[in-house]
Amino acid sequence: MGLLEGRSAVVTGAAQGIGYEIARVLGEAGASVVIGDINEDAAGQAAQRLGKLDIAATSRRCDVTDEDEVAALVAHCADRFGPVGVMVNNAGITRDATLRKMAVADFRAVIDVHLTGAWNGTRHAARAMREHGHGGSIVNISSISGKVGNFGQTNYSAAKAGLIGLTKASAKELARAGVRVNAVQPGLIRTAMTEAMPREAWDAKMTEIPMARAGEPAEVAQAVLFLASDMASYITGAVLEVTGGRYM
Ligand code: NAP
Q1: How far apart are CA 185 and CA 118, in angstroms?
Q2: For ligand 1, mutation pick of 25, 38, 166, 219 (most atoms within 8 Å of CB)
Q3: 234 is an active site residue
Q4: Which residues lie below 8 Å from residue 248, measured CB to CB, with a gap of 6+?
Q5: CA-proximal residue: ligand 1, atom 7 (nearest)
Q6: Which of 5, 108, 141, 144 sits most deeply, having the most CB atoms within 10 A of its CB?
Q7: According to DSSP H, which parts of 33-116 are helical?
Q8: What is the pLDDT of residues 173-219, one digit of tens each?
Q9: What would the pLDDT profile of 139-162 be if each residue is shown by its tens digit?
Q10: In this prediction, what percent of the chain has a pLDDT beyond 70?
Q11: Spatial separation of the C-alpha atoms in residues 221 and 218, rounded to whole Å
C-alpha cells in the first residue's frame, strides 16, 4: 500500500524538472496526479509519460498568477479524481540581474509567479480541503536562496523568503481544519533552470556543498512525499532543507 493511496494531488509547474519528479513520486506512492503548467502541450506530454508508468494522471494549462486558472485546476482535480488532498506549489521562474540592472517588471514577474502563485494555490486548495472535511497537505517549494539571499536574485530570494511567511501564516490558519502547510528549500538541483547557469557559477556553488554534488529532482520529490503523507502527520509550518548540507 503506497503512502498516498486513494488521494489526489495537484502539482503546479509540473511539466518538467522538479515538479515533474514530484508528480511522478507522488503518483508512484499511489496518488492520482493533476499536472498544472503554463505550457499546455508540455503538461499533456508529462501526463502521458506518467500514464505509461501506470500512474493516474491528467493535465490542464494553468498560469498560477491567474486566480481563476488556479481555481479551475483545483476543480479539475475534483472532477477527475476527487477532492484535492495534496497541493504542491512548485511553479517558478528566474529573471536574474543585479539590483542596479534589474527592471521592476522582472522583480514583479518573479514575485507574482512564486508568491502570488503559491498564495492562489494555497487559498484554493485549502478551500477545497475544508469543504470535503478530510484535511490535506500543502507543500510550497521555496529555495535555500530564501534563507541566505543569492547575488543577482533580489527578486527570487525575496519571493522564496516570502513563501516561508506564507507557509507559516497559512499553517496557523488552517491547522484546525486538519490542513498542514510546509515548505521545502532545495539547494542546487540539476534541472533546466540550473543547467542554464554559467559554468563558473556552477563550480562556485559546488565548493559550498558539504556533500560535494548537486541534488537530483527525485531527492526533492522524496522530501515532498514525506511532508505530503501521514508520515508527517504532526508537522506543520516547517521548512525542510534539501541541500546536501549547504548553508545549514
Ligand atoms: P523548471 O525546470 O524551469 O520548471 C518550472 C516549471 O514551471 C516549468 O514547466 C515552467 O514552464 C513552469 N511555469 C513557469 N511559470 C509558470 C506559471 N506562471 N504558471 C505555471 N507554471 C509555470 O524549474 P525547476 O528547476 O524544476 O524548479 C521548480 C521549482 O523549484 C521552482 O519553484 C524553483 O524556484 C524551485 N527551486 C529550484 C532549484 C533548482 O536548483 N533547480 C533550487 C531551489 C528551488 P516554462 O518552462 O514554460 O516557463
Answers
A1: 14
A2: 38
A3: no
A4: 210, 241
A5: 13
A6: 141
A7: 40-52, 67-81, 104-111
A8: 999 999 999 999 999 999 887 888 889 988 998 999 999 999 999 99
A9: 999 999 999 999 999 999 999 999
A10: 100
A11: 5
Q: Can you tell me the distance from the alpha carbon of 174 to that of 124, in angstroms, rounded to the nearest whole number?
A: 12
Residue range 225-243: mean pLDDT, rounded? 98
In the chain, % of residues over pLDDT 90:
94
Q: Grid coordinates 494549462 are at which residue?
A: 61
- 8-242, superfamily in CATH? NAD(P)-binding Rossmann-like Domain (3.40.50.720)
Determine the residue of 10, 12, 16 to mutate for testing ligand 1's pocket, defined as the one with the most ligand atoms within 8 A of the Cβ atom.
Answer: 16
* Beta carbons of 122 and 181 less than 8 angstroms apart: yes
Q: What value does the CA radius of gyration of the chain take, rounded to a whole number of Å? A: 17
Q: Is the CB–ligand 1 distance for residue 15 below 6 Å?
A: yes
**Phi, psi at 205, each rounded to 5°:** -65, -40
Are 195 and 189 in contact by the 8 Å Cβ rule? The answer is: no
What is the rounded average pLDDT for all residues in the chain? 97
